[in-house]
């Protein structure tokens, strides 16, 4: 008789996970390979009666190796998206151990759960609303006090906390010795001490998470941290008053009381809906006056004091205020003179590598696509398929795919370099160095990278805003990036100034144009400041992580992740936009004859005939553009085609002026006006796509498109009128 | 304040948001910190084994002894 499974009743089923765990419990060798699941979909995993799902959240400070730990645990079983309605990344993944399904969420790095930044609000809401079965706090043994602080805050919020102390390898190098037993006893939660980069740690961590979920050994004691008697009395007082409110069915009472005492605006607003807090607030104010402290600061201070005692009893060999290798490196890299020189060199290299290393690859991809589309075209023609369909397939669909793939090398190299800078710890230093310079223009140091990258490609510039933590500044830089002339626009400037001006005058005009665009960026910063709610800008407080060698695995992980997001989000948009452009320029469809011309839009040949929509538009707009900007229709059409990609402007011009542009064709005011207009009038489609995917808001995307157009139009009209009056 | 000096924070006279942020990073009244860099630009301090850069304006509002 065939064996029957005791769990699901199926015959002849090999229940790998359960057997594995038995082996595992017996202390037999447990290899990573064995724990891999049989091919089943996620839904079946949870609902076929075999598995229990555990929700686990990873919480911790930035730079504690949280993400790499997450990556090694979940491997390829990952899903990256955004938190609903937020610009912060949300990473989810899973692993399976002993027939149980563990879904992991990597919460954004945060220093505390005080809900000061977007990241902290997300983190706190996740723990409260989604109630994970286990909150796994990742700490760093070389800075245990700081990284355990968030663990104490998490312990007030939920009982299911476990701590993984990372960086065991670094501790051994520094001769630090941690007694996990003491710490475990004092905190009364499960603690694991590992080095996440070693392969054998993976199974230890998985086992630890499994055990933490199934153990009843630790009983959490909320009164573990002893605040002063006055504070405890106050907490009790508040707790009594707010009891039985609706909010408290979700949150622990003691935690809510603490937040009220700290003056947490979000919790207070929520509670104020059903309860008048005036009485409590008066009491808190009285207490603060009596004791002369800020309750929030006092609570943090007490937590740190408690941690200090715990850590010192458990950790030996820790030397406070020691000058580390990082400090020595910083002496050079953050030097008031050499530091800036090195920064310039590093970013110059960054910029050059991104755009020069990618250009041969781009040319290669371009070539492949040209060959491929001509091959498709000839084979389609040989089977006599209708010309309209051929054109749609070749110039619409294939060209659309090409438009996306052509961006890929730049994006990939850019992200790889960013990941190296981030992983090594230099990115934070560059923000530190530029803070003084950018501060003069009311911006933070982290906006610098975005500004620099924008000169190469606005897509890269917008993506670089991810390093800006302040939401207002990030939005400003995303919108203002369209004002930075990218490499494609530089091409147009060089082309036209070369025709119309002496070399020295051309150079001056080029510099002036760059000056105008930087001025527009800074003005945008000031204008946006007026529109955003005036949250008083927090002065620079920035943690500088220790330098370390970038790890290939984590760099590659980060790069793949972010490139994947670009492909998925922006890629779709660019593809669709390319199709739209095809329709605009090919409907109504006319068979190519001798007097039609092929116009290459980036990659895709667009056929301009006498009756294409583009020319209609150009002639229609002429009535308005001639008096205002001095543009006739032959100048308007290239600008229209330039909206999806600025590279097109030159090729469109050379097609519309078959004899080439000469000095007699345009007047000087016309040239100036054209140069100025093309400099900043609209971001390309790829940039718009990235603005959409980064801001998650159609409103901001619309602003990102129309705001430069309006500003540039006004500016150009003024300049053109002045020039034509003088000359 | 000279570099490499270990000092004790006496008082922080800044906006409440900044004070709370600093407190969460472990910089509060009575805490010992080491000044790592203090020439131009933001001041870097060593607190609890980590390096924190503080804008010069804010750093000026932290009284130490």
* Side-by-side strand order of the widest sheet of chain A: 2-3-4-1-5-6-8
Largest sheet of chain A: 7 strands, mixed
- Give the number of domains of chain B: 1
Q: Based on DSSP secondary structure assignment, what is the total number of beta strands of chain A?
A: 12
Report mean pLDDT of chain A, rounded to a whole number.
Answer: 77
Structural class of chain B: alpha+beta
Question: Could you explain how this protein is built, in words?
Answer:
The complex is a heterodimer of chains A (727) and B (65). Chain A has 30 helices and 12 strands. Chain A is an alpha/beta fold. Chain A folds into 3 domains: 28-222, P-loop containing nucleotide triphosphate hydrolases (Rossmann fold); 226-291, Helix Hairpins; 323-727, no CATH class. In chain A, a hairpin with a 2-residue loop joins β11 and β12 (604-608). The termini of chain A are far apart. Chain B is an alpha+beta fold. Chain B has helices at 16-24, 56-59; strands at 6-12, 32-37, 43-47, 50-54, 62-64. Chain B has a 5-stranded antiparallel β-sheet with strand order 4-3-2-1-5. The longest helix of chain B has 9 residues, at 16-24. The model of chain B has no long low-confidence stretch (mean pLDDT 85). The A-B interface holds A 111-112, 114, 116, 142-146, 149, 294, 296-297, 300-301, 304, 318, 320-321, 323, 326-327, 330, 334, 336, 432-433, 435-436, 536, 538-544, 546 and B 4, 6, 14-26, 28-32, 34, 36-37, 39-42, 44, 46-55, 57-58. β10 of chain A pairs antiparallel with β4 (50-54) of chain B.
């Amino acid at each position: 008789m065939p064996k029957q499974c005791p769990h699901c009743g199926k015959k002849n089923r090999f229940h790998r996970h359960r057997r594995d765990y038995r082996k595992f419990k017996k202390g037999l060798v447990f290899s990573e390979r064995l724990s891999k699941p049989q091919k089943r979909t996620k839904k079946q995993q949870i609902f076929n009666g075999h598995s229990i799902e555990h929700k686990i959240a990873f919480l911790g400070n930035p730079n504690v190796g949280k993400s790499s730990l997450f990556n090694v645990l979940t491997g390829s079983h990952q899903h990256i998206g955004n938190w609903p309605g937020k610009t912060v990344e949300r990473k989810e993944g899973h692993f399976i151990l002993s027939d149980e399904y563990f879904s992991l969420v990597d919460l954004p790095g945060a220093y505390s759960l005080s809900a000061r930044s977007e990241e902290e609000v997300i983190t706190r809401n996740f723990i409260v609303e989604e109630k994970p079965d286990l909150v796994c706090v990742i700490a760093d043994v070389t800075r245990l006090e700081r990284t355990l602080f968030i663990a104490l805050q998490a312990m007030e919020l939920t009982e299911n906390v476990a701590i993984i102390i990372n960086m065991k390898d670094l501790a051994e190098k520094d001769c630090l010795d941690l007694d996990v037993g003491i710490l475990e006893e004092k905190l009364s939660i499960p603690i694991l001490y590992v080095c996440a980069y070693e392969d054998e740690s993976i199974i230890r961590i998985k086992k630890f998470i499994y055990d933490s979920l199934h153990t009843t050994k630790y009983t959490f004691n909320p009164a573990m941290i002893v605040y002063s008697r006055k504070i405890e009395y106050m907490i009790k007082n508040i707790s009594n008053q707010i009891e039985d409110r609706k909010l408290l069915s979700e949150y622990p009472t003691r935690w809510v009381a603490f937040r009220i005492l700290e003056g947490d605006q979000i919790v207070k607003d929520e509670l104020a809906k059903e309860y008048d807090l005036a009485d409590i607030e008066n009491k808190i104010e009285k207490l603060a006056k009596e004791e002369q402290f800020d309750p929030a600061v006092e609570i943090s201070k007490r937590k740190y004091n408690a941690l200090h005692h715990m850590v010192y009893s458990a950790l030996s060999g820790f030397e406070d205020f020691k000058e580390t290798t990082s400090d020595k490196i910083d002496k050079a890299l953050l030097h008031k003179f050499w530091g800036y020189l090195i920064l310039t060199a590093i970013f110059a290299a960054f910029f050059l590598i991104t755009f020069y290393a990618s250009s041969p690859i781009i040319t290669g991809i371009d070539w492949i696509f040209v060959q491929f589309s001509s091959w498709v075209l000839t084979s389609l023609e040989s089977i006599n398929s209708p010309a309209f369909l051929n054109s749609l397939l070749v110039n619409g669909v294939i060209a659309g795919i090409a438009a996306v793939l052509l961006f890929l090398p730049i994006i990939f190299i850019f992200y790889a370099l960013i990941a190296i800078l981030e992983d090594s710890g230099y990115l934070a230093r560059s923000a530190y160095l530029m803070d003084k310079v950018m501060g003069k223009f009311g911006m933070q140091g982290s906006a610098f990278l975005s500004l620099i990258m924008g000169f190469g490609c606005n897509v890269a510039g917008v993506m670089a805003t991810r390093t800006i933590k302040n939401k207002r500044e990030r939005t400003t830089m995303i919108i203002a990036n369209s004002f930075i002339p990218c490499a494609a626009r530089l091409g147009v400037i060089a082309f036209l100034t070369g025709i119309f001006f002496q070399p020295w005058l051309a150079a001056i005009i080029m510099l002036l144009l760059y000056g105008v665009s930087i001025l527009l960026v800074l003005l945008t910063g000031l204008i946006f400041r007026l529109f955003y709610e005036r949250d008083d800008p927090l002065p620079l407080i920035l943690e500088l992580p220790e330098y370390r060698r970038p790890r290939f695995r984590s760099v590659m992980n980060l790069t793949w992740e972010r490139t994947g997001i670009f492909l998925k989000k922006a890629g779709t948009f660019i593809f669709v936009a390319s199709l739209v452009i095809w329709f605009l320029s090919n409907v109504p469809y006319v068979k190519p004859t001798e007097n039609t011309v092929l116009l290459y839009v980036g990659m895709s040949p667009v056929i301009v005939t006498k009756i294409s929509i583009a020319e209609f538009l150009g002639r229609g707009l002429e009535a308005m553009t001639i008096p205002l900007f001095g543009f006739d229709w032959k100048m308007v059409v290239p600008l229209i085609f330039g909206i999806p990609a600025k590279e097109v402007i030159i090729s469109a011009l050379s097609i519309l002026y078959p004899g080439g542009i000469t000095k007699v064709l345009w007047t000087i005011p016309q040239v100036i006006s054209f140069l100025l207009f093309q400099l900043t009038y609209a971001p390309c489609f790829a940039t718009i796509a990235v603005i959409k995917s980064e801001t998650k808001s159609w409103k901001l995307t619309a602003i990102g498109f129309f705001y430069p157009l309006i500003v540039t139009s006004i500016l150009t009209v003024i300049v053109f009128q002045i020039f034509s009056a003088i000359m | 304040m000279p570099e490499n000096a270990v000092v004790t924070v006496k008082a922080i006279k800044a906006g409440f948001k900044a004070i709370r942020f600093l407190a969460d990073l472990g910089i509060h009244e009575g805490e010992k910190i080491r000044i790592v860099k203090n020439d131009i630009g933001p001041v870097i301090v060593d607190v609890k084994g980590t390096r924190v850069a503080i804008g010069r304006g804010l750093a000026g509002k932290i009284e130490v002894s």
